[in-house]
Amino acid sequence: MSELHHLRPVRPSDHRTAGGTGFLGRQRARRAQREYEASILTFASAVKGEFRAACEGLHICHYVSVAAGLTVRTPRVGEVRPGPPLSFTVELLPGQEPGDFTAKENGPRLAHSLGGHGLRVEPIAGRWVRLVVLAHDPLADGFGLPSLTVAAGAESVVLGRTEGGITLGHAITDPAHLAVQGQNGSGKSAFCYGLLSQLVAAPDVLIAGSDITGLLLGRAFDDTAHRPHQVVGTSDLGAHAVLLEDLVAEMDRRLEHLPPRQDKIEPTTATPTVLVVLEEVPGLLRAADGLPKPKRGDGIPVGDRIRTAILRLLSEGRKAAFRVLMLAQRFEATAVGGGYARDQFALRLSFRVPADSLAMLHGDDARRLGQEHANADPGIAYLSGLGRDCERIRVPYLGDYGEYVDRVQRSGRRAPR
Ligand SMILES: Nc1ncnc2c1ncn2[C@@H]1O[C@H](COP(=O)(O)OP(=O)(O)OP(=O)(O)O)[C@@H](O)[C@H]1O
Known about the structure:
binds adenosine-5'-triphosphate, Rossmann fold, FtsK_dom, alpha/beta, nucleotide-binding, 10-stranded mixed beta sheet, Threonyl-tRNA Synthetase, Chain A, domain 2, about 425 residues, ATP-binding, 11 helices, P-loop_NTPase
């Protein structure tokens, strides 16, 4: 790695000895130019060597049996641009895809071999791609969320930005429930502030839900059309159960009255997409389970009522235009209403969590990403869903809590009088 760093060519104009006028000056400039061109060739050949060795190590190669034994074929490197950032074109081997260079841990490993932090793959044409070796973590810099609102649930809200610089969007009408986990201070609330602030004005979206912290929902939504459908705090846990049961009743009513020849509700202002936000579900369930149990025949315990309602919203809500956004520090099955409930989330986001929590929500393949992610900065998350492999993103940051309240108050849809 350091080898490549030392070989990186220096342009003559950057070179102090290249200046000067007159005959000797011109001679010096010519020699500097020749040395520069030679150093590019040396550097390019070193890059090719390192890349070939790294591809062999990572098995991004073909093993070909020839008379003399086994030989290794690695993707051919074309033009090398010293950069920064260092980039080079590569011809894919038969059967290879551009994504093979970044699949599993290949991206960072290839980049580390070439003295960088990350790798971006840009398809060029035919079998050729350009590999860009990023010198620093592309997600290290945060990005702000402008004061944006969508005019309808079918419009995409900004979820985050990938290492390749792609901004990912998601329409709340897409049939996916969202799971968000992360330790204290990892940025999950800030992410939800950004998400909800983008949805508050849409006439065909209703933000309902339960929040024992009273920060995400509740006061911030005072005087908006959403507030009557939200329950906050821990003083009346029964009210959380009642709200969720009311939402289930509305879901059942919608499913019962589905128009003929239609298998799902098309959201309108009269039947909006209901985003059921469930903040800190494990805490809600723990508190509800701590209540005195009703006597036999005297009703169902509050915790069980909440679990049943959540499970029904998760399993049957999609067709009735209900979407669940559930937040928890970790998505342990027992803490979020069971493994079946957890399986219902098509879109999953993990802010900083221990490796086992990452694997719990994103599957065992994500375990190898766990060690590094266990120390992730606030706002950096792994995302699975949207038809993409589990990938690292940075979510936008709207600012402090006061800014969230201001945006909801400014743009939040008002109830018709
Ligand atoms: N996307 C981001 N970009 C930059 N900084 C962020 C981002 N998200 C959060 N932060 C910083 O991290 C701090 C903690 O974030 P946040 O309150 O959202 O964490 P949390 O996971 O919800 O924690 P808790 O469970 O304690 O509520 C924020 O006050 C902010 O300073």
